[in-house]
Every structure is written in C-alpha cells, then in structure tokens.
Design a protein that fits this description.
CATH architecture: Orthogonal Bundle
CATH class: Mainly Alpha
CATH superfamily: Globins
Oligomer: single chain
Amino acid sequence: MAELIQTPEDIRHLVDSFYQKVQTDALLGPVFNEIAQVDWAHHLPRMYGFWEKMLLGTGHFEGNPMRTHLDLNQKHPLTSEHFQRWLQLFEETIAENFEGQKAEIAIERAKSIATVMQSKIAQAKRHFS
C-alpha cells in the first residue's frame, strides 16, 4: 500500500529503494559503481538530506551536484538515455511506495533536475568542443 511522504524515515525509504535499483541497473549501475565509484555510505546520507530539504523543508544539503556531474561526464559521457533511465527508476520507486502531493512534487523535482543537468552538460560539451 502506498504511503504519503511525511517523515525523514519516508525519505530514507525512498532514497534507499531508488538507489538499490540504480546500483543494479544495467545502464546506470556501471556509471555509479565503476566509473563514479560512488561511496554509498557517504552518498546516501547526502541524498537523504537533499530530498528531505526538497520535500519536507527540514533536511540539509551542501555541495555542487552540477560540478560533480560535469566532472563525471568528462570520464564517461552522460547521455539522454542515462537521464531517462534515472528518471524512470525514480518514478517507478515513487509509484511502488508513495502517493499524494509530496510524491507528485518529488517526481516534478526529479524531472526538473534531469532537465537542468542534461542542459548544462550539453552547454559544457558545446563550450569545450
């Protein structure tokens, strides 16, 4: 049964469920695990804070995700397929676990993040080509 996103525990469930999918995904898993070599013990708490801030207004996030993704794109080009798959897994995770206004907001924020990241990466490619 789908739940509302109301607490930090809900955010942790969302983030953990989503990144379990990402880590084992045929397209995204190698990017996160092998190329970016994500330190999951460090990354997941940062994502808890990010999504708590986005959805509950209570979390804390510091960092420059755009810079991180631009640097990653230098190692391995990030394509629209990567972003589409990321968004698909995010939306699946929401649909499997949550409902309501915050769930809808989460999907809209994820779409916005994917769009902005793709745009900035495309700009950087044009600038440095």
